[in-house]
Amino acid sequence: MRAPPLVPVVLALVLGSAALAQDQIFPPSFRTQDIATNGTTLSVRTGGKGPAVVLLHGFADTGDMWVPLAVELAKDHSVIVPDLRGMGLSAKPEGGYEKKNQAKDIAGVLDALKVEKIDLVAHDIGNMVAYAFVAQFPARVKKLVLMDAPLPGIGDWTAQLLNPLVWHFNFRGPDVERLVKGRERIYLDRFYNELSADPSKWTEAARNHYAELYAKPGAMHAAFNQFAAFSQDAKDNQELLAKAGKLSMPVLAVGGDHSYGTKMAEMARFAFSDVRGQVIANSGHWLMEEQPTATVAALKSFLGPGK
Question: What's the pLDDT at 227?
């Protein structure tokens, strides 16, 4: 009997992978719970069994961005995926958005879950919380992944602020929330489109999913506060770096070839002594949405199997 043609099979696999890349629903094997920490409450998904790994998201998405990676890591890791303070399904307090403080949010989550040591994977604003975490609690982190975003106050931060693509770092004031209210999808689309190598990689379902979350009461106010804290974050990071020096845990610095690329490793080396750089081809800023297969493979290779 002649074997069936491979094309339909390959096509099905490709389409299945693309669907998984932006399926924002964690499988039933993951538990979602609210955890009180550091004066606020974070929504946290947990799943799997083994060494713990924490996944921190950034702006314009939530912890839901990590579904494909979380599912893979849960095969041999305990996976912890919080929504950051003020974002997603987490509480939206008025203050506390300095990344040094948000690192304490994460420490409180780990304490509540009775987890001491972790691997830490972060993207975008998650990078900033991750650095503040490892600088304050270095003994708790075994390996660190930083993905496609700078660290305030570290390296060429001043040059980063002059990049026209990050105009939103300083988009605030008394009118910004009124301008965006009811137009969250329009606002977020600009980031999905301008910061992607191929905007079509962002599905309508994913765009609508995040637009709905950012349209919740207080969500955009909290998002703007994340950026408003950058000036203090820069001061805090400079103090943390002066106190802790270069940290020694292994670091994977990942950039999209249409975005930060090799600059991620260059920036990371200002704060870490053991940095490996990796560039994901055909990707902009949104590595998990644009190139999920290559990104997941890179992260799994660096983190290694659970033991």
Answer: 93
Give the single-character DSSP code of 272: B
Instruction: Characterize the bridge pairing of strands 40-48 and 78-82.
Output: antiparallel
Tokens of 110: 């780990």
Tens digits of residue pLDDT in 84-128: 999 999 999 999 999 999 999 999 999 999 999 999 999 999 999
Instruction: Report whether 58 contacts 129 (CB < 8 A).
Output: no
CA atoms of 106 and 97, how far apart (whole Å):
13
Strand ranges inside the chain, DSSP E: 31-37, 40-48, 52-56, 78-82, 118-123, 141-147, 251-256, 275-280
Q: Which two tokens stand for residue 117?
A: 């040591």
Give the least confident one: 48-62, 162-176, 267-281. 162-176
CATH 3.10.310.40 fits 30-303, yes or no: no
pLDDT digits (tens, 9 = 90+) for 205-251: 999 999 999 999 999 999 999 999 999 999 999 999 999 999 999 99
Q: Where are the domains of the chain?
A: 30-303
DSSP 128-196: HHHHHHHHH-GGGEEEEEEES---TTSSSHHHHHT-GGGGGGG--STTHHHHHTT-HHHHHHHHHHHT-
